[in-house]
Design a protein that fits this description.
The complex is a heterodimer. Chain A is α+β, with helices and mostly antiparallel strands. Chain A has two domains: about 270 residues, no CATH class; about 120 residues, Alpha-Beta Plaits (2-Layer Sandwich), CATH 3.30.70. Chain A contains 13 helices and 18 strands. A ten-stranded mixed beta sheet of chain A has the order 11-12-8-7-1-2-3-6-4-18, with helices on both faces. In chain A, strands 5, 14, 15, 16 and 17 form a five-stranded antiparallel beta sheet that branches. Chain A has a three-stranded antiparallel beta sheet with strand order 9-10-13, covered by helices on one side. The longest helix of chain A has 18 residues. Chain B is of the alpha+beta class. Chain B has a domain of about 70 residues: Alpha-Beta Plaits, CATH 3.30.70. Chain B is about 15% helix and about 25% strand. Chain B contains three helices and five strands, in the order E-E-E-H-H-E-E-H. In chain B, strands 1, 2, 3, 4 and 5 form a five-stranded antiparallel beta sheet that branches. The longest helix of chain B is centred in the N-terminal third of the chain and has 7 residues. Classes of the chains: A alpha+beta, B alpha+beta. At the A-B interface, helix 9, strand 15, helix 11, strand 16 and strand 17 of A face strand 2, strand 3 and strand 5 of B.
Chain lengths: ~475, ~110
């Protein structure tokens, strides 16, 4: 076993030879208290919060333009007030991408919270440099998805952020920070960086980096590996989901992982829960592209080794591509929507009549849409008509009409044409609702890693 | 029988691409699934949803498969008009697929 570097002299030194990583959130809006349970009872070295979905950063960039002190995760304050005191007291370091579009403002906010709560000394390190909007606009980039030139979007572009790797997160950890806060970074890198830092893994040991990516990938969605998003009564039962425990990864210097959770918490860690999360959203399991490695999950082995304890080994890797994925957020028009429900005998026929009426109304009143969609909720909304033909007629049906328009005013006309079914449509329609929302869409470009120059800035709270 | 009796699944998304895992409860059913749950069978089963290709990745060590469905999410999660823009419920649609029972009628291992 190699020596594990301790956090702060006099702090709780993890001399046991494994590093214990906890996942405190699987997405921005996730439950709050499981993270505190991890800090208080998980015997952790590091607590990671992964909170940044694809387009969240574009929305955060919009907020930052309105107010330069904002642009970070809306729940940052709530999460920090919950765990920061307990974490600093126990020497548990926090790593999170809750900085979103403004990691430095987030770091200052965390420092202010620490000061207010009398927690100190505290060092917060912000990882900067993922914002590559200027570089992308100056270049000749085309979207990977549509092939269209990025510049064609003009002032509809909101943001362009590169998925950073472990390098700058390790640099932030080397400042001995109690909290490391990033903007866009590869989700697994939030977990891989503390491993590289603690065990001194070489950045060209591709197999170790591949296995470390397995660790990050299994933990990053928090409850999704401890029985969340898994239960199917009678087939796959999971106890006590209302008190779901979030995961702990015990990682050895050679990368061997045991996934577990706090004893007595809800949920279940089994080979099956780990396999479902291992294959989640990875596309080709043999080529999971990351900033620092191309990870290969095809040889991973998963084995239960105790109650709520699963051993995961066999992740491998090869050299990275030299390109970083950049998510570009842009305004993409408006979506208007309306819904109304029908019930009882003949409900389906009345809903179909309502659908035909709205379709005709949108045509004869000249509502401008580039795309429309007509769903019967409870019948064909999720998987189309052929799936529902196998089922019987439902007691209740809800019509949903959605369309894409260039302006809010035009999009609003879609919901209006559903609402007017009250007095103009079939009998017994109820519960009509209508809405509009502006679309913030995301596509990606690839930029050379060398074009991205991350940096670290620290904020101190004295004792 | 329904696929749900032999395997479980989780759906994920990236852009306009859906990712469906398929994991055998009992590793002894892996070959049976490999024979019957082909990329073509999944493409036909989800024809109302998938506009692009279906690719199947095989993971014998996990007794699992990973299906990658192109152009399956109404133009992409961030701009789709669909009520389930992420296609999260597609795992349940996959498990509705009908296939012959395996030779043994062993109860699935839990």
């Amino acid at each position: 076993m190699s020596h594990v570097r301790s956090h702060r002299d006099g702090g709780r030194a993890p001399t046991r030879g494994t590093l214990r990583l906890g996942a405190g959130a699987g997405y921005s809006g996730d439950r709050i208290e499981p993270a505190l349970e991890l800090v208080e009872r998980g015997d952790l070295d590091v607590l990671v919060f992964e909170c940044l979905a694809e387009r969240t950063i574009a929305l955060a960039q919009q907020a930052r333009r309105r107010d330069p002190d904002t642009g970070f995760d809306p729940l940052l304050e709530t999460r920090m007030r919950s765990v920061l005191g307990a974490a600093v007291e126990r020497g548990v370091r926090i790593v999170t991408n809750m900085g979103a579009a403004n990691p430095l403002a987030a770091a200052r906010r965390i420092a202010a919270i620490a000061g207010e709560l009398g927690i100190g000394p505290v060092r917060v390190a912000a990882v900067l440099g993922d914002d590559v909007l200027a570089h992308v606009l100056a270049g000749d980039y085309r979207f990977e998805e549509s092939g269209a030139p990025v510049r064609e979007l003009g002032d509809r572009i909101l943001s362009a952020n590169a998925y950073l790797g472990v390098g700058p997160i390790c640099a932030a950890l080397r400042t001995d920070a109690d909290v490391v806060i990033t903007g866009r970074a590869a989700d697994p890198a939030l977990f891989l960086a503390p491993l590289v830092d603690a065990f001194g893994w070489s950045m060209d040991d591709w197999n170790l980096l591949g296995q470390g990516t397995v660790v990050g990938h299994l933990l990053e969605c928090a409850g999704q590996v401890t029985g969340g998003y898994f239960a199917d009564p009678g087939v796959k039962d999971v106890p006590d989901l209302a008190r779901l425990g979030f995961p702990i990864g015990e990682v050895a210097a050679d990368g061997e992982l045991v996934v577990t959770k706090v004893a007595g918490s809800g949920g279940r860690v089994s080979a099956a829960t780990c396999k479902e999360q291992l294959l989640y959203e990875i596309h080709d399991p043999a080529r999971y592209l990351q900033p620092d490695v191309v990870a290969d999950f095809s040889g991973v082995r998963v084995e239960a080794v105790g109650s709520d304890r699963v051993r995961v080994v066999g992740g491998r890797g090869s050299a990275p591509t030299g390109m970083l994925k950049v998510s570009v957020g842009y305004l993409d028009g408006w979506i208007g929507e309306g819904q109304i429900a029908y019930a009882g005998a003949g409900a389906l026929a009345r809903a179909r009549l309502a659908l035909a009426i709205v379709r005709e109304r949108l045509r004869i009143t000249g509502v401008q849409t580039s795309e429309t969609r007509f769903d019967l909720l409870g019948v064909d909304a999720l998987h189309g008509a052929s799936a529902s033909r196998r089922a019987g007629e439902p007691y209740e049906v809800r019509l949903r009409v959605a369309g894409r328009s260039a302006s809010m005013a035009e999009a609003a006309r879609i919901g209006n044409e559903v609402e007017t079914l009250y007095t103009n449509g079939p009998a017994g329609g109820g519960g009509a609702v209508k809405s509009t929302r502006e679309v913030v869409a995301v596509q990606s470009v690839l930029v050379p890693s060398s074009a991205v120059r991350p940096s670290v800035e620290t904020v101190e709270v004295p004792a | 029988m329904k696929l749900r009796e032999l395997a479980h699944s989780r759906a994920g998304d990236k852009g306009d691409t859906s990712n469906l895992s398929l994991i055998a409860y009992d590793a002894r059913h892996y070959e049976h699934l490999r024979r019957h749950v082909t990329a073509e069978a999944v493409r036909a089963h989800l024809a109302d949803v998938v506009a692009g290709d279906v690719v199947r990745h095989e993971l014998p060590g996990l007794a699992a498969f990973n299906f990658v469905l192109a152009r399956a999410l109404g133009g992409g999660v961030t701009r789709s008009l669909a009520i389930d823009a992420h296609g999260k419920s597609l795992s349940s649609a996959l498990l509705e697929l009908e296939l012959p029972a395996p030779d043994d009628e062993r109860a699935p291992a839990r």
